[in-house]
Prior knowledge:
Helix content: 25-40%
Number of strands: 2
Structural class: mainly alpha
Oligomer: single chain
Strand content: 5-15%
Radius of gyration: 14 Å
Distance between the termini: 38 Å
Shape: globular
Strand order of the largest sheet: 1-2
Amino acid sequence: MPVNEFGVNLDRNRYAPSLFDTTPHTCFCCLKIGNMERHEIFGGARRNNSKEYGLWVNLCPECHRTSPMSVHQSNTAAVRLKAMAQTIAMKTYGWDMDEWMRRFYRSYLEGDE
């Protein structure tokens, strides 16, 4: 079984367990119960980092992509989730800001813009 650099087991798709509450069939944002979609909080070139460091959440289709307030349609919603992910990752992995920037290129914490 593959592991990330911190020794955390990755599943066959190279996902570490989420650092967030990922109650099965429950949306992280609205707590709706039903079919969920996995959302990697950081996409593009940082998608693999999201997977390997557990920076993903379960979202209902509305919170994920179909509602105007979804993380794929609302920059405010996306940045809020990224700030939460940055905070939890830095705390969990003991990263300072320089280490965060080396891995994710941008800070999402208020006052760091």
